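Bench log. Compound arrived from synthesis this morning; before running ITC I wanted a structural hypothesis for how pyridoxal-5'-phosphate sits in the protein. Inputs:
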Amino acid sequence: MNWIEEGNKYLMHNYARLPLIFERGEGVYLYDTNGKKYLDMMAGIAVNILGYNHPVITKTICEQAKKIIHVSNLFYIKPQIELAKILVENTTGDKVFFCNSGAEANETAIKLIRRFFFSKGQPDRYEIIVFKGGFHGRTIGALSATPNKEYQKGFEPLVEGFRYAQFNNISSVLENINKKTAAIMLEIVQGEGGINVADKKFLQDINQICKEKEILLVIDEVQTGIGRTGKLFSYQHFNLSPDIITTAKGLGGGVPIGAVIAKEDIASSFTPGTHGSTFGGNYLATAVAKEVLNIVNNENFLKKVEENGNYLKDKLKKEFNFPVKGLGLMVGVELPENISAKEIVKKALDEGLLIITAGKNTIRFVPPLIIEKHHIDEALEKLKRIL
Ligand SMILES: Cc1ncc(COP(=O)(O)O)c(C=O)c1O
């Protein structure tokens, strides 16, 4: 039996896996077990922002592994504190909670919203407005916040208290506000939903409504955060003041870690025993994430992400006659109905190109942020042959 047959025998079939096994990576390239080289324009679904075998990440993992990997949050953890400080100093938040994934970060945010209003003596304010096309994760709370019938089917009853509004439609938000409304939670660029970028006016109206009505503004930066869009966090393009920010994916450069950053008055509703995570914020993950942020949170680095993102978008627009959307290095090409995005992704493998789908029929580019223009040229040459 080969590895793919063994995989089918022993692993749950909850993913539509491609029949491919990678052995190693270097920079923006991956190599499979037959030695075939692939240009990676998906970065493990927007995770490997510094590519593969990055010297700083590799060194930090090795050095930290020789000291301590995990001790639990019964103790203070130095790199966790250092990482929290960087996140607080670069966002609207004051305090950080660490977990291990995006769904967990959003699950934490949902609990934090409820707990905040409970602490204020308003336990009936628990409703959260989320958006059609949004994606917040697969745990039961995050899934309830993800208005996608395909993902939710068979998992009912879902957690109550979520209202589904239309993205980029402020009237729909207003229609959903009532005396139970606690928070509005959204992605600035809906990633899984098809690379749908929020309008500036829509975001600023939401920011204003939240301020006026004392509704919490929660930005899901799981996919858009950590430099992906050309700013450390995507809300920073729009001068918003989120009360809670969730992030994960790129933060650990491939090592699992999630974080929730909240303003002081909200964060303080979590008291000892109210929430926790065994692995959250462990030595290994936080030591690596700290180094990732030291590299990414740099003006020149972020400027280059923006430039390369625009370069990719412009080239896609020039080469193909399809709608191109996105922000920074989070880019989507919406294909017409007669071309299947899933088929293009499969064909790209033959050309040695890794891309993924998003939404209904969009191909998504979320490459390592260290990508250079000549890699983008190479990806476009491959794509031209496929399309
Ligand atoms: C915006 C957003 N939120 C949450 C998640 C869930 O993250 P995870 O898969 O790490 O649980 C994702 C994953 O794609 C995401 O894109």
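What the model suggests: Residues 304 and 362 are 25 Å apart (CA to CA). The pocket of pyridoxal-5'-phosphate is lined by residues 101-103, 106, 135-137, 187, 191-192, 220, 222-223, 248 (CB under 6 Å).
ITC booked for Thursday regardless.
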